[in-house]
Amino acid sequence: MRQLLFILVSFLAISNITAQQLDSTWTFNGNNGYSNSATRLLNTNGNLVIGGYAEGHYNQPFSGNKRYNGSLDVHRVVMLLGYNFSSKTQFISEIEYEHVKEVYVEQAFIQHKLNPYMNFRAGLMLIPMGIINEYHEPTTFNGVERPIIDGKVAPTTWREMGIGFSGAITSLNLKYQAYLVNGFNGYDGANLILNGKDGFRKGRQQAAESYISAPNYTAKIEYYGIRGLNLGLSGYFGNSQSKMFNGIDKSNVAANKSADSTTIGIAMLGLDARYRLKGLQLRGQLYYSSISNTEQYNSFKGKKNDLGSAMLGYYAEAGYNVFQGIRSIKTELVPFVRYEMYDTHYATSGGLAKNLAYNNNIITSGITYKLTNGAVLKADVQFIKPANGSYTQTFNAGIGVTF
Question: N or C, which end of the chain has less CB nearby within 10 Å?
Fold first, then answer.
């Protein structure tokens, strides 16, 4: 019921103002509003449009009494290709090479402009949760690595096949998305996929020969009516998928009950905020996931799984461009600090003991130097402390480009 209510409210907010005019080229204007690489390509003239981004990292753990090898990695190189069939119909694709050896398709969707205030989308799309899942180009965030909660609680980069609508209502300073999408793989026919250590991450199907047993729903509304401020409210609701449903008799109560034990219900809410005032840069994000049926899921056929019944993650970050106000310098130098917390065992059920290793506090402090628009150098030191242990420390450095 909560899922349907969230989607209904989103669509009612849209339908009640259909007389209002949208700006279909809604992009970052220096004060309010942000656009990612796909959005910029959708707003680019010409038939064939091209973009991309890339980042390379150096990660060096360190401590007072031990030596560790560092790692050097071309973390990702991404090419975006799009085609404008007409002023109304467009196609966007995003192809990613990770660690020089893995190839993924992160986006592949068609967009058709239905009218001045609504676009139809279908294909492989990003789930509109939080900030990083949609705005993950290396020049758009501080820190060499993405915030950890965007891998542990919301499994960035999170994308699935789906259909839905997007648009922006400029008179109300709102941007919206609402999609019907495929869900996480929860049971592959032999193993339970979701657990406390990895959360939902290994359940991403990513349109790689994915299957569906029940649709899921996701929506996001962003408000950008106050100068320098962008606020987001997002939600994701539905059930994990299970191959156990495939081919079972609908009238077989026992078989359907057993299959139900291989699924979980997910209700995830996200809040995010970004604010700029001259050189000051603030951002914060919160995720909360309520997970149902975990007792039956964890104990299916005697298995000892440890998926929690709730997950929580949040961070707050502050930075300042020290070159602000110096007219002769067009670049940015941003020292920053971010406090982050996540707990994939925020709540448990069925007598499952909380694993304190899944409850972590992270402090990341560093500097971002934007050489020019689209090219950045980064460095930071990150401290991670689980509730049952001591701090681990890592020095990170990297380069990033977006075009």
Answer: N
